[in-house]
Amino acid sequence: MTTPASLVDRHVGFVHALREAGLPVSPAEGLDAAHALMVIDLAERETLREAYAATLVKRPAHRPGFDLLFDLWFPPVISGTEGTAVAEDAELPELPELRERLAELLMGDPADPAFREFARTMVGRFGQVQAAPGRQSWFSFPVLRALSPETLVARMLNAMLDERGGLPEKVARRHISRTVEAFTEAVASDVRRRIAEESGIEKIARSAVRPPIDQVDFLRATKEELARLRREVYPLARRLATRLSIRQKRGRRGRLDFRRTVRASLSTGGVPLTTHMRPPRPHRPELVVLCDASDSVSTFSHFTLLLTFALREQFTKVRAFAFVDTVDEITDLFAPGADVLDAIARLTEEADIVRFGRTDYGHVFERFAERFPDAVGPRTSLLILGDARSNYQAPALGTLKRLAGQARHAYWLNPEPRAQWDTGDSLATSYGSVVPMHECRNVAQLAAFVETLA
Amino acid sequence: MWFASRDEVRGRLAAVDYLADDGIATSVFLAGALGKPLLAEGPAGVGKTQLAKAVAEATGARLIRLQCYEGLDEARALYEWNYKKQLLRIQADDGAWDDIFSEEFLLERPLLKAIRSEEPTVLLIDETDKADVEVEGLLLEILSDYQITIPELGTITAARRPYVVLTSNATRELSEALKRRCLYLHLDYPTPERERDILLAQVPGLPASIADQLARTVATLRALELKKSPSIAETVDWAHTLLALGRTELDEALIGETLGVVLKHNSDQVRAAKELGLPSRS
């Protein structure tokens, strides 16, 4: 990065890597970023990062991937340069002292430069492992195992608090878990940097960047991503609700509102320059949700249930039923103001949805038609959530056909990728011929579907 | 030129009690240096509108504000012809048909006003996401070329480019075309360290120890899965409340009593009380 030419190369390479990771960077935005490089102080790394972020990253969901790639393309330090070489070769203190130092850092502010510096030194010391005979590689696991920040928590709590318990401990724990997370991330980031130096940026970039949260597969989400997904429910519901209500207003042009038109014409001397229309009567469907609560798809159905209940004002009535191999109504659990996490926990305990514990769609449809004959009527949209995997039981297609016929609309959302439909015990095509089946693997697809619904 | 460097942005915003972190300072500086609009997006109450006000105050520019809402149209955003005056003119003088579309009959609305302003101007387009999609189309010409076309008068180009700040609560996704023309700044809840500094700047007379405790407690609240996380504005309100009560020590009982200042949903309060082990107020 000494001559302008190499800066251009790096810029182009970085923009290219962003596109490869799925960030939609237009050529115009690339140019904006280049303009920005001309006016900022390139020596300040954080300014450079923010300048790129402001010009190229226009969605918060893309930011984590961006930060990761930025750290690879514009590394904070380069191994082998003077400063770091000294730090790595110097006699380091013994492990207990290092852990002492780590505890101190974890109690402080993670934005402190010493924090990252320490993480880098630790990777240099513990991170190198024999991956294959004659080949060394870098990993974050041995670093975290050697220092094991989790086992320091009790000691740190004692140092931070006069007495344990209550709210102060909660607050302190929250601070510690935040800094431990920052430390883990700093270590991982430095490991990636070292791998990139040894075997090229492209290779590590491809495997390290996770897809943005609205593209995360429901069935493959990690625990952390699930928590983030749940947080998305309310913003997403708000976004969908505004979009839906705008569409309702636009849908049809209503009848002429004579009174308002004449009233408005007074300001133009009795000439009705603008006409006013009566708002069209909103069409609000009743929604019946039948959701598979078995473990294989529970993340997906819980999320979708939460979303439909968050969207309650868009529907006159929402009724929800859960099933594994028998079915029960769960509408009450999601009453207004009810706690979301509670509702999910109670779902499995209180509702009578399990007989033998293996999903049986056929039995569920029959039982549903028998127990709740009035649930599905001519104004109802019926929504079925599940993977259509029925453990080779009888499908009861006739019953489902009757249910779908009673409803105004019926839809089936399947969280499995389309390529896996009809494999093994999946009855996707059979059920799909009765009720239109949509692939719904991530939040983006789910949002697109809800929009077509109302 | 609005600002000379990122550090100058930071210094001058701090002088008007707006604490900018790296991201904010860099974006604000770039928006001025590149002459591009700045789109600030984030949850309610993290200081998006305040940022525009602070930029105006720090640079001594005039602030022109366009508040977006559903049903906002050209006539209220851009310009409108003064029909009443035009009708009167025609009735008074039969030969006046030609000159009723002139400057005299033009009613300036915020966008036109900002474009024609001779003095330095900060144009704040607030809550862009609340407006209809058509309004975004209307904004495109102004944001990319700083000009407005009025069919009867021709194209009016900015005498002096205004500094444009758009804000959005992300209740809907803004169009790609609009986003492409803007610099993007995602404002999120601050780290406890920054929030403490904000509290100290915004609430004079607040003891540093309480500010620190408040910031950390609010960070803990935000970590819970709540319907509506407390915003910076609400944290500041909380600090004011504690000052007004004359308390200098933040204990659990006090937090339980004043939780309503930061959490506005009953289910959120119940949840927070349960998770944090606060005395419940049934």
From TrEMBL, chain A:
Taxonomic placement: Bacteria, Bacillati, Actinomycetota, Actinomycetes, Streptosporangiales
A Pfam family the protein falls into: VWA_CoxE
InterPro entries: UCP010256, Uncharacterised_CoxE
Protein known as: VWA domain-containing protein
From TrEMBL, chain B:
SMART domains for the chain: AAA
InterPro entries assigned: AAA+_ATPase, ATPase_dyneun-rel_AAA, CbbQ/NirQ/NorQ/GpvN, ClpA/B, P-loop_NTPase
GO molecular function: ATP binding; ATP hydrolysis activity
Taxonomy, superkingdom: Bacteria
Domain AAA+ ATPase: 34-193
PANTHER family, alphabetized: MAGNESIUM-CHELATASE SUBUNIT CHLD, MOXR FAMILY PROTEIN
Family statement: Belongs to the CbbQ/NirQ/NorQ/GpvN family.
Listed name of the protein: AAA domain-containing protein
